[in-house]
Amino acid sequence: MAVRHDEATEQGPGRKLTIRFTLNGSICEATVPPETTLLQLLRDRLNLTGTKCGCEIGECGACTVILDGRAVASCLVLAGQVDGLHVQTVEGLAGKPAPTAEELHPLQKAFLDRDAVACGFCTPGMLMSAKALLDENPEPSRDEIRRAISGNLCRCTGYIPIVEAIERAASEINRQSACHEHDEREA
Amino acid sequence: MGAGDRSIIGSSAVRLDGWEKVSGKSLYVDDLRIPGMWFGGTARSPVAHGYIKAIHRDPAFDWSQVVVVTAADLPGPNAVRMIRDDHPILAADEVCFVSEPVAIIAAPDRDTLIKAIDALSVEIEEHSPILTMEDSLRAEGIVWGDDNIFAEYRIHSGDPAAGFRSADLIVEGTYRTGHQEHLYLEPNGVIAIPRSDGGIELLGSMQCPYYVHAALAHGLGLESTRIVVKQTTTGGAFGGKEDFPSVLALHASLLAQRAGCAVKMVHERTEDIRSTTKRHPSRIHHRTGVMRDGKLVASEIDLLLDGGAYTTLSPVVLSRATLHATGAYYIPNVSIRGRVVATHTPPNGAFRGFGAPQSLFAVERHVDRIARELGIDPLDIRRRNMLRDGDQFPFGQVLKEGVGASLVLEQAIALSEYKEKKASKAWRCGPDPHRAGEKAEQAEKASGAQPSAQRTSSAVRSVRKGVGLSLYLHGGGFTGAGEERISAKAQVRFVSEAQVEGSFIGSSQVERASVADDQIERGQSRQGHIEVLVSNVEMGQGASTVLPMIAAQALGLPLELFSHPHPDTSRVPDSGPTVASRTTMMVGRIVIDACSDMVAKLKAALAQWHEVRPEEVELANGRFVACGEELGSFTSCASRFSREMGPLLGEATYVPPAGLRWDEETYRGDAYKAYSWGAHVVEVEVDMETLEVRPVKVTAVVEIGRAINPVLAVGQVDGGTLQALGWGGMEEIKLEGGRYLNDRVTTYIIPTALDAPDIEVKIVELPYERGPYGAKGLGELPMNGGAPALVSAIEDATGLSASAIPVTPERLMALMDEGSEIRKSKAGASNPYLAAGDADCGAVEDAGETP
User: Fold this and answer.
1) Alpha-carbon distance B422 to nearest alpha carbon in chain A (angstroms)
2) Does B756 have pLDDT greater than 90?
3) A58 in the Ramachandran plot: left (φ > 0), alpha (ψ -120 to 50) or beta?
4) Could you say which of B64, B115, B200, B493 is the most buried, measured as most Cβ atoms within 10 Å of its Cβ?
5) Contacts with A54 from chain B: Cβ below 8 Å
6) A1-92 has which fold?
């Protein structure tokens, strides 16, 4: 993938690179030192602190974001690697910056309704892993859900409410899209 | 007081802090940024025991760009205020555990900080450490005090010697549990901001704002009025943010004072695991006299906890462990000695259950052992001995109110079909549809052939199922006279439209790090609402929802009108720490009283305004009436009060319940205000080839007085149960030379979504008269029962009886080898359980072979 280097500072320890990528649907450009991780870019540079830092070595899943459709630990991705790609974070999940309870994504609603949220620190990452799963597999089995979130640690809930919330969100999304198709046919 | 028609209590209202959390807008301490903020870090001891000779600063590093604080630079006493002042803020002379802080450094950016820490080296004369409880007891080297014993408690009841003489059989066993890391997902972290008056404003992830407040006042030598502590959204704690945040808060504050600017200290995960407190390891010996029919007649218990290098909360942890040592059983003649000893390991501290899980593990495993030796069912021995109304604990407390032991046990047995499963050989050895399907599928894929019935049945022969149970209790609230000592206060405050405050954390200096600036906490953007002002925090357990529910019920107003702001010591009274399952049970009760006070103040004002007597004014369905005349809605009356008479505040202080008495001198009396009860039935599958254990299904029945919010209550049981299964089955801290070897999330393994069993939770309720709407303690309870039930199920499946946790495959393998040794030496007959295990499902050796 093409990475544009900042010409003025290309050489030496102070060099930086400029990346352009799609972040929650909008084009985003940033100039960062090459060792910057995607997590650092999101949190420290772009102030998107919804993505959490739990270990910085890819072990806990709190920093999970969706990179071109795949759930990834953003602490293990260099910012330079996302040049030209699509990044989705929890802030983009509902499709608007300050969603009302009604405007939340079905996953967010299901997490609330099923009390799949406790301390909330794993929640953004958990939601993004779940979103990547449902985008790929709209009707996952319980085992598939468990596998999809097996890289996201949660210490509060015992996981059961989370698995059930994802299941509930999947059927809600499927119901909505069925309604949508039905409406289109009617039209 | 009018509770209103609708019942908020018992409804499963959605978490009030949920929206912020699912939308990524909750601000945890690391999400906050102060302009000009520096970053702090710690230089630590690399050895478990030694004496500091020098702290060297590499001359190649430019030290003018950072600030360094060592023990020599402290403005006040070198002690982190807790139970005793023995825990140094920074090691001055002696270092007593690996990773003990020796110097702290702050730098304008993280890179410089890392370089500075690397450029500082500590020269230590190493001495041999005391690393085990046994070595500590022998007192060959002194870690602490004169004898290495932080605390000791004794309990004596009846006539143990006579009890043992009358017993048909005496059964002994020693049980061990290991360290447990909390692994809250958000590491410990704080930000210290110097104030213009020389004081400190401290923001951080914590359970106990007033503990931190007291530690800062003491350690910094400041008047308490110049210190403000504000809790930020806390990403899990489980006890791990009870005492430790005081240490980090002192470090950050010292650096902030020295640097003259805000300093953020947030642990990186490895540092957090290495340097923060853990659950106390235990070694508990039981010697029990029993009658042939299973009746327990005498008990001698020697309980030992490893406290690590400094006192922290160890004496209180020991106290709870000692008082829970006989579990949920009545034994007439008892002698207990509990001790917590010092070792050169990182100080251990609070962890959900606070000593009780260790005691419950030991007593539950021991009761299983007695049952085995007597040849009776583990269920029957529990039924015979469990506590009932009117029974007395060995420390003298008589159980007067609803004892839930029998209730939870019988319901758990029925719900889980324990007896049927226990009796059914077909269930235990029968094909498991899940595994069988998986293996057959794999075979099918590999060979392209139809799975044969023969192959399927042989594939599942390597998996054995087992079922185990536990019965347990947990005393709610502080131990002994703790609640009386702390005398907690709570307030409810009416905030009229004009008084709504804008900023989330009250500090003008905090930049909202998040991109969207629209997330003023919803409670504070509301017009005319009521704040529940207490020092108890939301840390995931649901306090921010449950406390407002209690207040809403008390005032008969809709829940939407209530909020629980993040505790800020400049705004909330000291209602005590968020610990000991006390927030709902103890503080919730005081919140009701504070609501009554608010109503009384309003009634007095209304009486004055309308020229009626206060007792003629009534509140019903959110409206005040007097003599049939409507006086206005609660909100309109409260607004008028605020306009004309100043802030409308309801206040209350803890009222000790009548008739309960605890004597610290004799260590006897009513140790807890009320007990909650639980029973776990755990079903496991054990792969006999790899000895991997998979908990498949757990049934948990808990009696908690009253579930204020049933969905949140079930969530506590789900989470506590899995944490207990992790402790019992997989979580193990490995130590070498006092150093934690597994200090990462991939080496310290906690359960993932793939390890979590299905958990069926049933809540039963025997309302507690003094609790808010009958509620008793809940948070810690489920931690007590998971591990013993798991180990019992493993024994049921394999015949391997473990008395130490975690029961890892390695430990099971060792037990199996021991078993073969016993069989070889023809001593197998003395261990019928091993033989029985084999006889049940066929020999282990031929399991899993495919034809």
Assistant:
1) 26
2) yes
3) left
4) B200
5) 185-187, 269, 745
6) Ubiquitin-like (UB roll) (3.10.20)
User: Cα–Cα distance between B565 and B523 in angstroms, integer?
Assistant: 8
Domains and CATH numbers, chain B: 18-27+488-500+524-653 (3.30.365.10), 34-128+188-267 (3.90.1170.50), 133-181+278-351 (3.30.365.10), 411-436+458-473+673-841 (3.30.365.10)
Give the residue, B502 or B847, on which the prediction is more confident. B502
Question: What is the rounded distance in angstroms from the CA atom of residue B303 to the CA atom of residue B334?
Answer: 13
Domain ranges across chain A: 1-92, 95-187
Q: Binning pLDDT at 50, 70 and 90, where does residue B432 land?
A: low
Domain A1-92 matches domain A95-187 at the CATH topology level: no
Mean pLDDT of B817-821: 80
Contact A111 B18 (CB under 8 A): yes
Find out whether B563 and B524 touch, Cβ atoms under 8 Å.
yes
Residue numbers in B near A34 (CB within 8 A): none
Among the partner-chain residues A99, A118, A123, the one whose CB lies closest to the CB of B715 is A118
Helix (H/G/I), strand (E/B), else coil: A31: strand
Question: Inter-chain contact A46–B515, Cβ cutoff 8 Å?
Answer: yes
Say what the ipTM of the complex is: 0.94
| Residue B435 confidence (pLDDT) | 47
Contact list, B744 vs chain A (CB under 8 Å) = 55, 57, 59
Task: Yes or no: say if B761 and B399 are a contact pair by the CB < 8 Å rule.
Answer: no
**Dihedral sign of CA atoms B585, B590, B595, B600 in order:** positive
Q: Over the stretch B609-641, which tens digit does the pLDDT of each residue have?
A: 999 999 999 999 999 999 999 999 999 999 999
Residue B245, SS3?
helix
Q: How far apart are CA B539 and CA B32, in angstroms?
A: 17
- CB contact (8 A) between residue A91 and residue B24: yes
pLDDT at residue B431, rounded to an integer: 56
Per-residue DSSP letters for A58-97?
Answer: SSS-TTEEEETTEEEEGGGSBGGGGTTSEEE-GGGTTSSS
Three-state secondary-structure class, residue B55? strand
Write phi, then psi, for B466 (nearest 5 degrees): -155, 160
**Going along B506-589, which residue ranges are E strands?**
529-533, 562-563
- pLDDT above 90 covers a percentage of chain B that reads 86
Cβ contacts of B96 within 8 Å, gap of 6 or more: B48, B49, B143, B309, B310, B344
Q: Which of B220, B357, B345 is nearest to B276 (CA)?
A: B345
Quick one: pLDDT at residue B427?
85
DSSP A118: S
State in words which class domain A95-187 has. mainly alpha
Hey, are the CB atoms on B12 and A115 less than 8 Å from each other? yes
